[in-house]
UniProtKB/TrEMBL annotation:
<dbReference type="Pfam" id="PF02390">
    <property type="entry name" value="Methyltransf_4"/>
</dbReference>
<keyword id="KW-0489">Methyltransferase</keyword>
<dbReference type="InterPro" id="IPR029063">
    <property type="entry name" value="SAM-dependent_MTases_sf"/>
</dbReference>
<comment type="similarity">
    <text>Belongs to the class I-like SAM-binding methyltransferase superfamily. TrmB family.</text>
</comment>
<dbReference type="InterPro" id="IPR055361">
    <property type="entry name" value="tRNA_methyltr_TrmB_bact"/>
</dbReference>
<feature type="binding site">
    <location>
        <position position="69"/>
    </location>
    <ligand>
        <name>S-adenosyl-L-methionine</name>
    </ligand>
</feature>
<feature type="binding site">
    <location>
        <begin position="192"/>
        <end position="195"/>
    </location>
    <ligand>
        <name>substrate</name>
    </ligand>
</feature>
<feature type="binding site">
    <location>
        <position position="122"/>
    </location>
    <ligand>
        <name>substrate</name>
    </ligand>
</feature>
<keyword id="KW-0819">tRNA processing</keyword>
<feature type="binding site">
    <location>
        <position position="154"/>
    </location>
    <ligand>
        <name>substrate</name>
    </ligand>
</feature>
<keyword id="KW-0949">S-adenosyl-L-methionine</keyword>
<feature type="binding site">
    <location>
        <position position="96"/>
    </location>
    <ligand>
        <name>S-adenosyl-L-methionine</name>
    </ligand>
</feature>
<protein>
    <recommendedName>
        <fullName>tRNA (guanine-N(7)-)-methyltransferase</fullName>
        <ecNumber>2.1.1.33</ecNumber>
    </recommendedName>
</protein>
<comment type="function">
    <text>Catalyzes the formation of N(7)-methylguanine at position 46 (m7G46) in tRNA.</text>
</comment>
<dbReference type="InterPro" id="IPR003358">
    <property type="entry name" value="tRNA_(Gua-N-7)_MeTrfase_Trmb"/>
</dbReference>
<keyword id="KW-0808">Transferase</keyword>
<comment type="pathway">
    <text>tRNA modification; N(7)-methylguanine-tRNA biosynthesis.</text>
</comment>
Length: 213
């Protein structure tokens, strides 16, 4: 997703350092100190404009959430929505999800969300997909033994790619849907910005999986 540069983003991020981290490697092993109390940690990679993670944090005050996003202008927009009604159990991190194992300890994360990740359809860009083998290896390290990955997309090609790459890992599928919005589980579904925009065009695919080693 390409986004227009937002001139206000830099100063806005600097002014709200209590809720956003721009030097995540310095917080290795210390994430829980950024919340009012230590609780299970759930992370979304590619959080976009933040609707999903903000609504999740509202719905689950018993969990601490971190939204990771690569683009400054995008995360600044998420932060601005969040600042309308800040929550003590949500933090944002401006970084590349590829660095996850440099900023989180092994087994530190209980649940990892990937929502409508960029499909990178060209083969030469496959490594950038958030469910490529390199990323899965990283998730395997930072997820706790009973941790899960939840992945949603409207892109059938990316979903099939993800099933195949995951199948090459010691991993079990706990849930797979080829049409989330017409399944009973949709009642508890919190929609992302992309989901709201693209679900009228076709099905939403979802899987939940956990590593077995
Ligand atoms: N999850 C949001 C949603 O469903 O509305 C945004 C989806 S958007 C298509 C994908 C987002 O992932 C973009 O904001 C992009 O900047 C971010 N992204 C892509 N690669 C990333 C990476 N390696 N680390 C962190 N964020 C990434």
């Amino acid at each position: 997703m390409r986004v227009r540069n937002k001139p206000w983003a830099d100063s806005y991020i600097k002014a709200h350092g209590d809720y956003i981290v721009i030097d995540p490697k310095n917080w290795l092993g210390k994430w829980q100190t950024r919340f009012i109390k230590p609780q299970p940690l759930n992370v979304e990679v590619g959080t976009g404009k933040g609707r999903f993670i903000i609504e999740m944090a509202k719905a689950h005050p018993e969990i601490n959430y971190i939204g990771v996003e690569l683009q400054k202008s995008v995360i600044a927009t998420a932060l601005r929505s969040f600042m309308a009604d800040p929550l003590p159990n949500l933090q944002f991190v401006l970084t590349d999800g590829a660095n996850l194992d440099e900023i989180f300890l092994a087994d530190e994360i209980q649940r990892l969300f990937l929502n409508f990740s960029d499909p990178w359809p060209k083969k030469r860009h496959a490594k950038r997909r958030l469910t490529s083998p390199k990323f899965l290896q990283t998730y395997q390290r930072v997820l706790s033994a009973d941790g899960q990955i939840e992945f949603k997309t409207d892109n059938r090609g990316l979903f099939e790619y993800t099933l195949v790459t995951m199948n090459n890992f010691p991993l079990r599928f706990d849930y797979v849907s080829l049409d989330l919005h017409h399944s009973p589980e949709n009642e508890a579904n919190i929609e992302t910005e992309y989901e709201q925009k693209f679900s009228p065009n076709g099905p939403i695919y979802k899987l939940i999986a956990h590593f077995t080693a």
